[in-house]
Amino acid sequence: DPTCVAWLDNNPLRDPVFGYSDFVRFSWAPCKDRLADAAIPVVFRADLDEEELQQQKGMARFLGTNGRKRKRLEYFEKRNIRVAKPICQL
Q1: Using 50, 70 and 90 to split pLDDT, how confident is the model at 68?
Q2: Contacts for 9 with CB less than 8 Å, ≥ 6 apart
Q3: What confidence category does residue 1 fall into, taking pLDDT thresholds of 50, 70 and 90?
Q4: 11, 14, 58, 82: which one has the fewest Cβ atoms less than 10 Å from its Cβ?
Q5: 81-87, long-range: CB within 8 Å, 24+ apart, which pairs?
Q6: Residue 15 forms beta bridges with which residues?
Q7: Residues 50, 54, 60, 63, CA torsion sign
Q8: What does the pLDDT average to over 17-24?
Q9: Rounded CA gap, 15 and 23, in Å?
Q10: Whether the Cβ atoms of residue 13 and residue 19 lie closer than 8 Å to each other
Q11: Nearest one of 23, 30, 21, 26 to 3, comparing CA atoms
């Protein structure tokens, strides 16, 4: 959109770290280009941590049932604690 590109050309970054105000779509290619050129590069530790990515995948597997019933935790089994009423029925 030429109008949006012109607006970006006429309005410099508001902040060197956070870029433009919240009404600019940061995923838009012209905005990404301007941020790459003028903003301070920020690298998040989580983006670099492969172990955390593996933990997130493990959590997704844990939360996803895939049609299988999850084994009850030993704490609840030893104490014979059962669900009286599911939360979704409250």
Answers
A1: low
A2: none
A3: confident
A4: 82
A5: none
A6: 19
A7: negative
A8: 78
A9: 14
A10: yes
A11: 30
